[in-house]
Amino acid sequence: MFLENTVNHTEQFGWIEVICGSMFSGKTEELIRRLKRAQFAKQRVEIFKPSVDTRYDDEEVVSHNENRIRSTPVPASSNIRLLANDVDVIGIDEAQFFDDEIVAVCNDLANRGIRVIVAGLDMDFKGKPFGPMPALMATAEYVTKVHAVCTRTGNLAHYSYRKAQSDDLVLLGETQEYEPLSRAAYYKAMKEHEMHNKKERNNEQ
């Protein structure tokens, strides 16, 4: 459960919130919602995203349903530490694309009294923990796991199945390249993919 009312009036401190899940689960939507509420409360807010993420906009953070908020693209997590001055709240989108130093950066900022809100994919397309996300989830005070709806079964989905033929860990894409699947649907799809590849290899021999 996420609690915002954790204000200690005698001690200045911050904390880390992680919003994670599969693609199309509403991670960025939830990040933007929290950041806009903070802005409405006249809190000083800065948003960062990896400069590699240019799917919707070079600078803005944009959700799948076109909600958007101004952000600063950065090539490495260390840039966030340098740019995060005189702020109350920091938002970080697509955290899985950052280097491992993002964990230390988020903890340093929280220790400086800043509320840090991080959104990212918890698993890659192979169903493995994605980059620095496990460590961020472990050190965060609050973790919110959001789910998509499986395109094949209608059940809750927390796997991002890659339809595109690519083994690159980082492949930016939308519904043409990915679909959210439940555990059962993902397992079945991966088995079918494996059998298809095996068949193709046999045909080539």
Automatic annotation (TrEMBL):
Protein name per the record: Thymidine kinase
Enzyme kind, highest EC tier: transferase
The family database entries (Pfam families) matched by this protein are listed as: TK (PF00265)
Q: Which UniProt keywords apply?
A: ATP-binding, Cytoplasm, DNA synthesis, Kinase, Nucleotide-binding, Transferase
EC numbers for this chain: 2.7.1.21
What gene name is listed for this protein? Answer: tdk
Recall the GO molecular function terms of this protein's record.
ATP binding; thymidine kinase activity
Catalytic residues, per the record, are: 94 (proton acceptor)
